[in-house]
Specification:
Blueprint: E1 4-20, E2 23-37, E3 40-46, H1 56-64, H2 67-71, H3 76-82, H4 87-104, H5 108-111, E4 120-121, E5 124-126, H6 131-140, E6 146-150, H7 156-166, E7 171-175, H8 185-194, E8 199-201, E9 221-223, E10 242-245, H9 247-250, H10 253-265, E11 269-272, H11 279-286, E12 294-295, E13 313-314, E14 317-318
Parallel strand pairs: 5-6, 6-7, 7-8, 8-9, 9-10, 10-11, 11-12
Antiparallel strand pairs: 1-2, 2-3, 4-14, 13-14
Helix pairs in contact: 1-4, 6-7, 7-8
Length: 327
């Protein structure tokens, strides 16, 4: 019997709201690709992102366009040629790897030649808000070893100082989501240095970040929106010290593995990140976490409820997926 592809849309409420420089939302809307073959089922989850021109409808349609190819035996490596990077390819890629693992009994990490995954510490994200509310949120999360702080541009030095007051012992990453501007970046960098921030993610808009080639800094700067897959690495030269690899941007685990390998040869530090999704979206990314200096796979921690079965989180320690979830 030929393999059969189905696409579903699922909604998971966020605990409170998730706010970044581009806006706020109260639910995670995910698209799941499921491939069935002789009673065996493989799944992959993606999160369409408007910043990259994606909608739930467009991503679902792109996945469904591959139904015939899936039935005929499409492989993850075929996908690199057939589809562009993005959420749709990610869901299909991860579903194909999951199906193969369940069919053969060989874990995905082993098939890809990766090291066996082990528990890792993930960052925990603090949403953008006024300094007082962010300080309160930081105080509530101060027991966590690594916090990722969403910033918004104007007023960010006060936000950074407030979070540090609330969580004096936690390591801090800040993520501006492209909200800083050339006239404020020096002041913001100084505020980060004063607070002992360890990494600054995407301070300037993608395509408007040439200033990073010449600006003095003591804190590494990480590319997020400026880098999707291997094709974008050349443009990062002299601008960034690290990259945030997200499977939804790269278009799946297959490309993410190749991207991580190429980035390391260029001396770039790795962060493994995520969109706000469920454990099914985090599970494939955990296979790369052992290569990363920073892991940001806290999507399920931000939800009011996760899918079941899900990943095991013990505080900020996230364990590798069991086969009944993925891989």
């Amino acid at each position: 019997m030929a393999r059969r592809l189905t696409v579903t849309v699922e909604r998971f409420p966020i605990a409170g709201a998730f706010t970044i420089a581009r806006g706020s939302r109260t639910e995670a809307v995910v698209v799941v690709a499921t491939i069935e073959d002789g009673g065996i089922r493989g799944r992959g989850e993606c999160v369409p992102y408007a910043r990259y021109g994606e909608t739930v409808e467009s991503v679902g349609a792109l996945i469904e366009e591959q139904a015939s190819a899936v039935a005929e035996g499409l492989s993850p490596h075929d996908l690199l040629e057939r589809m562009k990077p993005g959420a749709a390819r990610n869901a299909l890629d991860c579903a194909l790897w999951d199906l193969e693992a369940k069919r053969t009994g060989t874990p995905v990490w082993q098939s890809l030649g990766l090291s066996a995954p082990s528990p890792v510490t993930t960052a925990y994200t603090l949403s953008l808000g006024e300094p007082a509310s962010m300080e309160a949120a930081a105080r509530k999360a101060a027991h966590r070893p690594l916090l990722k702080v969403k910033l918004g541009g104007e007023g960010d030095p006060a936000r950074i100082a407030a979070v540090r007051r609330g969580a004096p012992e936690s390591r801090l990453i800040v993520d501006a989501n492209e909200a800083w501007r050339p006239e404020t970046i020096t002041e913001n960098l100084a505020a980060c240095a004063a607070a002992g921030v360890g990494l600054i993610e995407q301070p300037l808009p993608a395509g408007e970040d040439a200033l990073l080639e010449s600006i003095d800094r003591t804190i590494p700067i990480c590319a997020d929106e400026s880098l999707h897959d291997r094709a974008g690495l050349d443009a990062l030269a002299r601008r960034y010290d690290a990259i945030n690899i997200k499977l939804d941007k790269a278009g799946g685990l297959t490309e993410a593995v190749l991207l991580a390998e190429e980035a390391r040869t260029r001396g770039l530090t790795l962060m493994i990140g995520c969109m706000v999704g469920t454990s099914l979206a985090m599970a494939p990314a955990i296979l790369l976490a052992g290569q990363a200096a920073y892991v940001d796979l806290d999507g399920p921690l931000l939800l009011a409820r996760d899918r079941e079965p899900g990943l095991l989180y013990e505080g900020s320690l996230v364990h590798p997926p069991l086969p009944d979830l993925w891989g």
